[in-house]
Design brief:
Helix content of chain A: 55-70%
Number of strands of chain A: 0
Largest sheet of chain B: none
Oligomer: heterodimer
Largest interface: A-B, 56 and 31 residues
Shape of chain B: elongated
Distance between the termini of chain A: 40 Å
Structural class of chain B: mainly alpha
Distance between the termini of chain B: 22 Å
Number of strands of chain B: 0
Helix content of chain B: over 70%
Largest sheet of chain A: none
Number of helices of chain A: 9
Number of helices of chain B: 8
Strand content of chain B: under 5%
Chain lengths: 186, 211
């Protein structure tokens, strides 16, 4: 797809998602996941690594993009923002996988907009295991709102937490999951 | 875990998100950090008594530092977002340091060499060197806290600028105590201490800001 029309489409979806449009947000994440898969496969092969970890990175980046949505500036283009996060997560992955390697080259965004890759979508991560490591309030909130699809007020009624507490717990829980994927303890 | 399942999870019950909060957070943090630094100054070394006036050097110190704070904060409001940076603002910071350094050198050149020692070292250079980093601690912690609410992707640089701004805030607080009125003193001690804070910030950034 043409880069600029792609940018326009993703930017539009991002704005709608920020306004609370779940369908647009899902569509954005789906399109991004395909692009990110291609990006990470390319990056991994460039540093002489297999593509096994690509899907872990895709998922880590998707969670990061989701939980850091508030850092997007609507007056700026979307693609550099998303790829800055993707690249940050890649460098972070390299740092923790071989910490002796320093000063990795960072290239231009233009170069890294790679071919889409709709291939393998299964990561080595285990959602149940990740969930089990979360504190109970975060786990319950994510289970209710994100997996069972309850609204925040329904989840609040079920768990006895306040509605705003449920929302905060969901957000913190997703961030905590991203940290767990990144190999950090909570 | 299947990526489609993750996407479904992330896009279930999507909350609307405001994007304008980061700048406000940074601004409030800066004000709070500044007030804290000023209080630390009042409770430790205290205000200088000016007697009859001569506020010229105070304004010079404040002007030097406030320019750094302005440019540094503008940079932070960019560095807090993924993939943003601001080349011109680094130039502003560089020019500020260059101007004050040159002014210091000119001021020395205009005076006989015998007075240089006093102009450069003042009466309280050690106090200055100690207090500016000390007063910068709370503002630095506050700025790191604010940056962590965003998503900086260049951690070393974000840490360095946070250190620079915190150092300049500490120097503003110290300026209200500082009894040394000479341009070479300001250029050397204020400049070096703020630069030191920036260096420390760049070393701490990758640890403190990782997400």
């Amino acid at each position: 797809m043409n880069v600029s029309s792609n940018e326009l489409e993703l930017h539009g979806l991002m704005l709608a998602g920020l306004a609370g449009d779940a369908i647009a947000h899902r569509s954005l994440l789906e399109k991004l996941s395909t692009q990110l898969r291609g990006f990470y496969r390319g990056q991994l092969s460039r540093v002489g690594r297999g593509s096994v970890e690509a899907e872990d990175l895709v998922q880590e980046a998707l969670i990061a993009i989701h939980t850091r949505r508030h850092t997007f500036d609507p007056s700026q283009p979307f693609t550099p923002w998303a790829y800055a996060i993707a690249r940050y997560k890649f460098l972070d992955y390299l740092r923790r996988s071989y910490s002796s390697l320093k000063d990795l080259p960072i290239e231009d965004v233009k170069e890294v907009i790679s071919t889409d890759d709709p291939g393998q979508v299964e990561s080595t991560l285990d959602l149940e295991k990740l969930m089990a490591e979360l504190p109970s309030d975060m786990r319950e909130a994510i289970q209710a709102v994100k997996l069972d699809g309850l609204s925040a007020s329904e989840a609040a009624a079920r768990s006895g937490m306040s509605e705003s507490n449920v929302k905060v717990s969901v957000h913190r829980g997703l961030k905590a999951m991203a940290r767990l994927i990144g190999g950090n303890r909570l | 875990m299947n990526t489609d399942r993750l996407i479904e999870m992330l896009s279930t019950n999507v909350e609307p998100v405001k994007t304008g909060q980061l700048k406000k957070t940074l601004a409030l943090t800066l004000v709070a950090g500044g007030l804290a630094a000023f209080c630390v100054m009042l409770s430790t070394v205290g205000l200088r008594s000016y007697g009859g006036g001569h506020y010229g050097f105070l304004f010079l110190k404040l002007g030097f530092m406030l320019t750094l704070i302005g440019a540094g904060t503008a940079l932070l409001s960019r560095l807090i977002r993924p993939g943003q940076d601001g080349r011109r603002l680094y130039m502003v910071i560089f020019v500020v340091f260059a101007v004050i350094g040159l002014s210091g050198a000119v001021a020395l050149a205009l005076r006989p060499a015998g007075t240089w020692g006093h102009m450069v070292m003042g009466t309280q250079w050690a106090m200055c060197a100690f207090c500016i980093p000390l007063f910068a601690i709370v503002p630095f912690a506050a700025l790191i806290w604010a940056l962590r609410r965003g998503a900086p992707t260049n951690l070393r640089r974000a840490g360095a600028i946070a250190g620079l701004v915190a150092g300049a805030v500490g120097a503003v607080a110290y300026a209200f105590h500082c009894p040394d009125d000479s341009i070479p003193f300001i250029a050397l001690w204020y400049g070096a201490m703020v630069a030191l804070c920036a260096l420390l910030g760049s070393m701490l950034g990758p640890r403190l800001l990782r997400w």
